Amino acid sequence: MNSETQQAIDHAKDVMGAHIKALNAGDGVALAATLHFPHYRLSGGVLHTWHDSGSYLADFFARAGDAWHHSAWDQLNVIAAEPGKVHLDVHFTRFRADDTVLGQFRSLWVLAKIDDKWAAQLRSSFAP
Fold first, then answer.
1. Rounded to an integer, what is the distance from CA 50 to the centroid of its chain?
2. Of all helices (H) and strands (E), which one includes residue 57?
3. Burial of 46 per CB tally in 10 Å (0-12, 13-18, 19+)
């Protein structure tokens, strides 16, 4: 693997770290900074599109449910990478406030460098 591809992987994983931190903090501004817009999510046979960050965090809270307290990445596995794009096989867990598990899920994330910014462009998720 060349150094540019390794740097892309490092950037993608940094974005994922910032994403989960912002999500768990309920920080919509920081969360939006980890996403490219429009942002796409395929789940349950429906392609959801957010054209801007306005409703993204509220939409997540609605999907995750009232019992959700925080999430954690279990695995971030690189499937494919090039200097401008990284595909990740992601495993994550959603937790209640008492750290009991709400659910464990898998998804495919595509992170890309667009306009000199690394962020998530789209994902396909098995989570509701």
1. 14
2. helix 56-64
3. exposed
